Amino acid sequence: MRNLLKVRNFVIAALFAIMLSACDTGTSGTSGDSAETVIRFSMWDIVDETAPFIQAFHAANPDIRVEIVGIPEDYSTVINTMVVGGTAPDVILAWEVDMPRFAANGNIISLDDFVAASDLVDVNDFMPAVAGLRDMTDGLYGIPWVYAGHFLYFNKDMFDAAGVSHPTANWTWDDMATAAQALTIRDGATVTQWGITAIDFPGIWYSLIGQGGDLVVDENLNLSLGNGLRRALEFQNRLTNEYQVAPQPGAGAAMDLFSAGMAAMTRQGNWFVAGYSDLPFNWDIVPLPGDAAVHTSLHTGFFTINSASPNQAAAWRFIEFLMSHEGQTLLSEFTANPSAMMSVAAEGAFRVQGENGPTNWAAFDYFNNYGRFTYVLLNATVTSNLVSQFDAVLLGLTDIDTVINVEVPNAQAQLDQLN
Questions:
Q1: Are residue 117 and residue 157 in the same domain, yes or no?
Q2: Are residues 30 and 142 in the same domain?
Q3: Which of 21, 33, 48, 187 suits 235 as a labelling partner, its CA being 20 to 30 A distant?
Q4: pLDDT at residue 9 above 70?
Q5: What is the mean pLDDT of residues 241-267?
Q6: Nearest to 145 by CA among 67, 92, 204, 80
Q7: What's the pLDDT tens digit per position in 321-373?
Q8: Are 69 and 186 in the same domain?
Q9: Cis omega before residue 247 (within 30°)?
Q10: 326 and 289 in one domain?
């Protein structure tokens, strides 16, 4: 999702100049040569003031000017440093892991009163997962700008050639495994077509664990991994080592086997819909197959207001516009991701239609019912290191009991030290 926002490349030196300038000026205020209020807005990718949603805001609010603080690398680290140093922008597009902590530490303000007084933002229109976050932070401190989840992508031509029925929203893990076996083609000991790709994105692992029945993260922001993790590891191990229909972790990492026409299925984020728009074969999407539960891990960024900002009213006007019907439509089109406002998401502004797929846009509706913010609320280094242990099981370097009884508690201990 975040990579989709890189709409142009800037010279690195210029980027650092912008960042240094932002840090030197601190929070923004009123322009010296007009009554215009200047607010600063941070994003993790390079977006300048020519972005359609910024231009639309300026047209509707000529008394406010938005300056973009572009942070292309180490976004969370840079933002946290700016917060501690008192140089954070007025509006912070905060990562999931940072937003609850910023709220608990008083770095950002509650948006509840602003939302209650707004005619443009309807809290009842938020997707259900937002309500769960509101409970965790004891109030609405951040509003998702858009969001993303995970799909099963499949090559319709390969399915048809093998005489295998296409996946449906009711598919289970067993259905996926059966199809993967029928779709794997070998030339002697060499696999020429994989039934399904390896898991190459941490979020897919955590979605799989949630499907296995675990909460993944509980209401106290602690890991909640047990039998669901066991079921996920056992299932992926069957695909990889027993059925041999998925490559080993890291195998084929230099290419996308699905887009290369070398795998019939892949599990990826919905942002791959835009990336796959030019594929030369017929393809489609369905929700991730379920097991004990139906689940997908969600990803987003949250509009938040710096508690030290002298321009909180102007900052809210910016957020309010971007959470309005017009603003959300523009953001969905710009990012190719659905709005967290269900009424806007239903209109489909996020859709990137390729010549050969997808057609099953209804798959996005499942995010509202089964999507949750889980592992993204925790330190990314810890959750990524835990994924390396999941991969180690498939590689025969460790066993499932060690992961559950040793590595998961170790990961929780690291999280406790970071809090």
A1: no
A2: yes
A3: 187
A4: no
A5: 92
A6: 92
A7: 999 999 999 999 999 999 999 999 999 999 999 999 999 999 999 888 889 99
A8: no
A9: no
A10: no
| Domain containing residue 314 | 24-148+299-345
Q: Which of 42-56, 190-204, 220-234, 317-331 has the lowest mean pLDDT?
A: 42-56
380-385: average pLDDT: 96
Q: What is the CATH number of the domain that holds 105?
A: 3.40.190.10
Q: What is the 3-state secondary structure (H, E, C) of the chain?
A: CHHHHCCCCCCHHHHHHHHHHHHHHCCCCECCCCCCEEEEEEECCCCCCCCHHHHHHHHHCCCEEEEEEECCCCHHHHHHHHHHHCCCCCEEEEECCCHHHHHHCCCECCCHHHHHHCCCCCHHHECHHHHHHHHHCCCCCCEEEEEECEEEEEEHHHHHHHCCCCCCCCCEHHHHHHHHHHHCEEECCEEEEECCCCCCCHHHHHHHHHHCCCCEECCCCCEECCHHHHHHHHHHHHHHHHCCCCCCCCCCCCCCCCCCCCECEEEEECCHHHHCCCCCCCEEEEECCECCCCCEECEEEEEEEECCCCCHHHHHHHHHHHCCHHHHHHHHHHHCCCCCEHHHHCCCCCCCCCCCCCCCHHHHHHHHHHEECCHHHCCHHHHHHHHHHHHHHHCCCCCHHHHHHHHHHHHHHHHHHHC
Together in a domain, 207 and 290 = yes
Whether 9 maps to a domain, the answer reads no
Percent of the chain, pLDDT > 90?
82
Q: Are 396 and 253 contained in the same domain?
A: yes
Q: Number of structural domains, the chain?
A: 2
Residue 23 pLDDT more than 50? no
Asked, for residue 318, whether it belongs to a domain, the answer is: yes
223 in a structural domain? yes
